[in-house]
Amino acid sequence: MNKPEEGTAQSREKGSLLKIRRAIVSVSDKRGLFDFAKALQEFGVEVISTGGTYKNLRDLGMQVTSVSEVTGFPEILDGRVKTLHPNIHAGILAVLDNPSHQNQLQEQKISPIDLVVVNLYPFEETVARENVKLDEAIEQIDIGGPAMVRAAAKNFRHTAVVVNPNLYGVILEEMKEHEGSLTAQTRFQLARLAFEHTSHYDSVISMYLNGLTSRSELPESVTISVQKTQNLRYGENPHQHAALYGKFNEYFKKLHGKELSYNNILDMNAAAFLSAEFDEPTAVIVKHNNPCGVASGTSLLEAYQHAFATDTKSAFGGIVCVNRPLDMQTAEAINEIFTEVIVAPEFEGRVLEFLMTKKDRRIIQEGVNLRKLRELEIRTVAGGFLAQDPDQHRLFADQLKAVTKRKPTDDELVSLMFAWKVAKHVKSNTIVYARGNRTLGIGAGQMSRVDSSKIAALKATEAGFDLHGCAVASDAFFPFADGLLEAVKVGATAVIQPGGSVRDEEVIKAADENNVAMVFTGIRHFRH
Hints:
CATH superfamily of the largest domain: Methylglyoxal synthase-like domain
Radius of gyration: 31 Å
Shape: elongated
CATH class of the largest domain: Alpha Beta
Number of helices: 19
Distance between the termini: 69 Å
């Protein structure tokens, strides 16, 4: 075979290098676009462009080729059809060392396209806005863009693809090093990133459409695609690698302090979801993914003081989350002990400046209404994962079923409702003692509900609380009367639990014999 002439299809790939002579540029994210396109032209690359990208470059003074000149066909259907044409896709997909492909390109007078610079319509950003209509979202579903990206990525041996503006500098540096060419290794890595890009794009569309569907079952298949936000120093333990993915840093903005750890993030998440249960000024203190104190009050200071009093020992080194703008008095109270992370929706006056005097303490601004989130809860298991709807059930007093002879008093009812909200966020088996809008003792994560009752009572006693006349919440039914009797023994006079045990009558009888008011919720709140 004769050596091909310079410029023919066969000569474009030499060894591991691909000479870039022709590029198509069509981007939604126009960061760095002009400088990149200008640099490509300085390498002698012909730049083809479409729609808004073409106009943008022309307005900035660049001479670029419109896609219509290449296809011989105008953009139609309001831009829905631009690049879906053989002159584009054959140029991208041709295998340049295949003689048959070369002959077909020559017969059809199609020139290869060596570089595809495409990122997709901003569907994810669009549907993240409030009150977006379905028709508006649908118009942000890109068709031609993903087709070009996938075609170029499939043909990475002969075509390079760039989907991220952050890579422009890397591309230009390599072209400079190799006289306008890109290496095979780089093209492979670009292809891998391109398929990640289109996979993520499609998964976001799927999740959005699934979210519009009322359903009693979860989808038949679930695609999970989230971008890495940051590498973490380590996971739960120093020997474990870890990273953060998704939008967490959009929901929780770090204003000060050391980088968040894996465990910090878990505890922050738990604290924030618990504080979101309450409409009144509320403070939550979390340690090891369980609340060690929760309280609501007429002021945030009162709420924090009561939450802290529940377990002053465990609060040391914990996470504090409040559901109101953090004021100076409350900040000063929090500042009296070592706290790993402070989370608040806002910080009043000079509060932030005051808290920043401790350089390592993380200060986080919460910027999302957690009650509105409908994200699936996902946990990995061997060979797969479990998924469930989030536990967003909210209980109201008129939904309670009184099952004992004595009904709860108004004061007891307040305590019961408060304890129930907290119990929902404690690892099961859970027992929570409360009076009014504050916790007195929390028993978490025991294999026996009786043991949870004992631990909660022990914590309350250590804190100096008298449990006589308090309310007790159990996240699941009492399988026997012994768990209830343990609570009665320390002074509880009102009980809230789901009910549903085969021994409910036995438990109700024990409550009646001790003049205890008990209500059933009909809802269980296990948290494993």
